[in-house]
Design goal:
Layout (H helix, E strand, L loop, with lengths): L6 H11 L12 H15 L6 E6 L4 H12 L10 E6 L6 H17 L13 E2 L6 E2 L3 H5 L2 H14 L10 H7 L17 H8 L9 H13 L10 H13 L4 H13 L3 H6 L4 H4 L10 H5 L2 E2 L11 H17 L2 H12 L8 E6 L5 E3 L4 E5 L5 H13 L9
Helix pairs in contact: 4-6, 6-11, 8-10
């Protein structure tokens, strides 16, 4: 029986190959450098045992989440091995299933698990867009969920999947070795609104009321900092903000870093700092516009042998264009996920007009199949939205 290649063995092989094989280091385009690094790493593990992920689509949402967390809690896994995903209870097979799994994993990580590990659900990262920071729950630390999060993020990135968006620049700075003292922290990085409002009282030079001084002093003393005075006001503001954003999340970042390292993408990120924004893009960098989608669509050609008339093809493609041009970026993201299996925009998107009842997708081929029977846009939009919103339940069940 063939043994797994360990992390240390992969790194050793990398050194033995020599610098001539490290063309990713000298590639000018960070996206291309990232692609070359990932492809090289995945090729090294082609002969290793396949990594299997299984999930039963008939289970409850909580049980499906347990399957995800159980998979990523496994220790001593070579995450660069070939991945085979199986969705029990769904007939779908192929690359589309893998894309669907990564889309589900990253969506849960980004927006929260339904599992009640703590009251209110399991949201590992919290805060406003582009100011997200790790949650400070001790339960999450005790459960090693930030190591799990690092594995999820690195594994998805390794396979070209969705990335984690909106992480605070100050958190990214420290995660990759930056000194907390040199981090630029925004007040919006403080995810706890109550704490944020107390810290904000220290801004400016106006007199503080007795109640404000009491609230600030109580917070400062709870974090082993001195009470507020007129002389230390600005200094205390910065210390409280640093503690709220960076010091309270330092253990989380160490474990997140460990999880990322286990997926073997760390050499790329440390030697090519320009690839870090690809792993943790800002939310605004992944907003989809109608033009972005329309430029990549391969529209149906006129085919005399087609069972669908040219009139039907023109009408349905017109409905699709209208939908794309009039819906929000979030709806377009869901459309891409329904179309391809994840919300990563490919180079081309294929459209077919076919005989059928409801809109469907062949995610392995990145092909959207539109039924030809729709005569008015309202009915088309209603069913199209229903199909898109059902993407979490698998492909065969749509």
């Amino acid at each position: 029986m063939q043994e797994n290649i360990t992390v240390s063995q992969v790194i050793t092989i990398d050194h033995e190959e020599g610098p001539e094989h490290d063309d990713w280091k000298f590639e000018s385009d960070p996206a291309e450098a990232s692609k070359k690094y990932r492809e090289k790493l995945l090729r090294k593990c082609e002969m290793s045992p396949v990594l299997h992920f299984q999930m039963d689509m008939r289970d409850s949402p909580e049980d499906r989440e347990r399957a995800i967390l159980t998979f990523y809690k496994k220790a001593n896994v070579d995450w660069a091995c070939l991945l085979k995903c199986t969705l029990h209870g769904d007939p779908a097979i192929g690359d589309g299933v893998t894309r669907h799994v990564f889309a589900t994993v990253m969506s849960k990580l980004q927006h929260g698990f339904e599992l009640q590990l703590v009251p209110g659900g399991t949201l590992l990262f919290e805060g406003e867009k582009d100011h997200v920071i790790p949650a400070t729950s001790q339960c999450f630390l005790d459960s090693d969920l930030f190591v799990v999060a690092g594995r999820m993020i690195g594994h998805s990135f390794l396979h070209g999947g969705p990335c984690f968006t909106g992480l605070s620049p100050a958190i990214v700075h420290v995660l990759f070795g930056g000194c907390p003292d040199t981090a630029t922290i925004d007040i919006l990085d403080c995810a706890d609104v109550d704490i944020r409002q107390i810290i904000e009282k220290l801004e400016g030079t106006g007199d503080l009321s007795t109640e404000e001084k009491t609230a600030i002093t109580d917070l400062a003393l709870s974090w082993d900092l001195p009470a507020v005075t007129s002389e230390n006001r600005r200094w205390l503001h910065d210390k409280l903000l640093t503690h709220a954003v960076l010091e309270r999340t330092s253990k989380q970042l160490k474990r997140l870093r460990r999880g990322l390292k286990e997926t073997l993408i760390w050499p790329l990120l440390t030697e090519r700092k320009d690839t870090i924004p690809l792993l943790f893009p800002r939310t605004s960098d992944v907003l989809y516009t109608p033009r972005m989608l329309l430029e990549r669509i391969c529209w149906p050609d006129e085919d005399e042998d087609s069972e669908v008339s040219i009139e039907d093809i023109c009408r349905l493609t017109g409905f699709l264009r209208t939908f794309i041009e009039n819906f929000s970026s979030s709806a377009l993201r869901f459309l891409i996920e329904f179309w391809t299996g994840w919300d990563v925009l490919p180079r081309s998107l294929v459209v077919e007009v076919v005989e059928g009842n409801l809109p469907k997708s062949a995610t392995c081929y990145q092909t959207l199949k539109l039924p030809s029977h729709y005569k008015d846009y309202t009915a088309f939009e209603r069913d199209f939205l229903a199909a898109i919103w059902s993407r979490d339940y698998g492909f065969g069940l749509v």
